[in-house]
């Protein structure tokens, strides 16, 4: 396969993602800051994607799919955009067609929990109530490049501090590894700063969320899930 063919295929995948969002190139520029002319050069294959640009598009599309369509897809991943690879550990149909069937949900959580590209968090407090309750499980795709953290300002994210356990917060501001966060439940009886600044090593926007009532507490076969 020639280099030009590879560039065209990568561009076709980017174009397909934008089409699914129903965004013109100018609209994409307005919401992401990527100029319409630059986007056109990538989509046509005239300009080839570097690793860093592919990761940027991966994060942009992941955020837009969650905000606009309400769910993410494996097609926004770096591996798919850059290499055209589909994930082996995840059942793709589960990502695109969530189900309330308990067995399917348990299998889906197992798939996420055994995939190192994702954070899976079992919530241990009520700090993000009423949206997220104690014992709910949340999943997000892990991002470690600090220059991309600012893309998630205003989003609910799973944060991995330099030391300590994962936790869920709304991201207010990101300045490299320093993340300013806030809780949603200001009426909680648990002690917590409403606004807090912390250094993190990774961030993962919450793209999937299961309530305790959907999961059932008898899922003994689950792999270990990190707790918040």
Topology:
Elements: H1 3-21, H2 25-32, H3 36-43, H4 51-69, H5 78-83, H6 92-96, H7 102-113, E1 118-122, E2 137-141, E3 156-161, E4 167-175, E5 178-182, E6 195-210, H8 212-215, E7 226-227
Parallel strand pairs: 1-7
Antiparallel strand pairs: 1-2, 2-6, 3-4, 3-6, 4-5, 5-6
Helix pairs in contact: 1-4, 2-3
Task: Describe the protein.
- This protein has 228 residues and is α+β, with helices and mostly antiparallel strands.
- It folds into two domains: 3-83, 434 Repressor (Amino-terminal Domain); 99-227, Umud Fragment, subunit A (Ribbon).
- The chain is 36% helix and 21% strand.
- The chain is built from eight helices and seven strands; from the N terminus they run αααααααββββββαβ.
- Strands 1, 2, 3, 4, 5, 6 and 7 form a seven-stranded mixed sheet that branches.
- Strand 4 and strand 5 form a beta hairpin.
- Helix 1 packs parallel to helix 4 and helix 2 crosses helix 3.
- It is globular and about 60 Å long.
- The N and C termini lie far apart (46 Å).
- The model is unreliable at 90-100 and 217-223 (pLDDT under 50).
List keywords for this structure.
Umud Fragment, subunit A; 434 Repressor (Amino-terminal Domain); alpha+beta; 228 residues; globular; 8 helices; 2 domains
């Amino acid at each position: 396969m020639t280099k030009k063919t590879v560039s065209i295929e990568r561009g076709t995948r980017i174009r397909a993602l934008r089409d699914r969002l129903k965004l013109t190139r100018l609209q994409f520029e307005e919401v992401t800051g990527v100029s319409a002319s630059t986007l056109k050069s990538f989509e046509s294959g005239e300009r080839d994607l570097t690793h860093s640009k592919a990761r940027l598009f991966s994060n942009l599309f992941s955020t837009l799919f969650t905000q606009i369509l309400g769910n993410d897809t494996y097609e926004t991943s770096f591996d798919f955009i850059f290499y055209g690879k589909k994930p082996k550990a995840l059942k793709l149909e589960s990502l695109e067609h969530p189900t309330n069937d308990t067995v399917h949900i348990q299998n889906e959580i197992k798939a996420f929990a055994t995939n190192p590209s994702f954070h899976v968090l079992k919530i241990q407090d009520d700090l993000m109530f009423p949206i997220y309750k104690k014992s709910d499980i949340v999943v997000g795709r892990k991002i470690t490049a600090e220059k991309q953290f600012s893309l998630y300002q205003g989003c609910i994210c799973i944060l991995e501090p330099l030391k300590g356990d994962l936790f869920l917060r709304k991201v207010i501001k990101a300045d490299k590894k320093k993340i300013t966060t806030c809780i949603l439940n200001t009426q909680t009886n648990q002690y917590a700063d409403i606004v807090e600044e912390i250094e993190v090593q990774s961030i993962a926007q919450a793209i999937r969320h299961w309530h305790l009532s959907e999961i059932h507490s008898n899922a003994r076969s689950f792999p270990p899930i990190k707790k918040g």
